[in-house]
């Protein structure tokens, strides 16, 4: 079983032993309810580093007041078994007071990129993510940290943040892991009813439709409208956004003639708000 580290000094004692002898530390931050997507990140880290550490912390400051903080799935016993199966060395499982002691009041401001796409309907979400990830990096002192590209905006924000703030951690992105029918793995898939789970398969089909038809469109608006039409064939789909952005930095796209683009979407099915994306070219 991985060593369970509860306090910040437990983590520092553990990782400093590795740093002292120049061993590479790979880190996978998570909120638990682990699935194959999380484990793939760890397997990649296991191959590339000498020590593999996860964190499991449902970070309250990245949830809005009406969001699913209380309902967020938690199953530490199952998580530990999964982490054990891939040879995890240690897991940091802090409580809220270790991460946010009384008087905590400093946040990482990531600017405008935190207000677009998911940031529009989840104000403050990425500020909370950037803050907790910075704290975790300062606690774990890892060499490499691994993030899934399903959360593409989060991945780009973290990469930008470490560059802007000179945080000495290399950010590694890993491809989205999917169920057999294409649905992106997510802890929030647990909120889907049987019918919604079937309806949600429209997302990956819509992403592929957009990719396959990309060359037929010069304007992004045309491709976005057709993708929205595709998703709306599923009556239970409630679209938050479908957008096309530049792959490298999520900046606005003027024309589809030149550049590399990613189509990103967020769609609700009942209580589940699902996100996904696809590289168009
Ligand atoms: O992607 C997640 O699970 C979370 O946003 C993260 C990176 C662990 C920060 O709480």
- CATH top level class name of the largest domain: Alpha Beta
The bound ligands are:
pantoate
| Shape designation | globular
Number of strands: 9
What is the domain tally?
2
Poorly predicted spans: none
Number of helices: 10
CATH topology of the largest domain: Rossmann fold
* Fraction of residues in β-strands: 15-25%
- SSE order, one letter for each helix or strand: EHEHEHEHHHEHEHHHEEE
Q: Could you estimate the helical fraction of the residues in percent?
A: 25-40%
| Gyration radius from CA atoms, angstroms | 19 Å
Major sheet: order of its strands? 1-4-3-2-5-6
Q: Which structural class best describes the helix and strand composition?
A: alpha/beta
Tell me about the largest β-sheet. Answer: 6 strands, parallel
Distance between the termini: 42 Å
Instruction: Quote the average pLDDT.
Output: 97
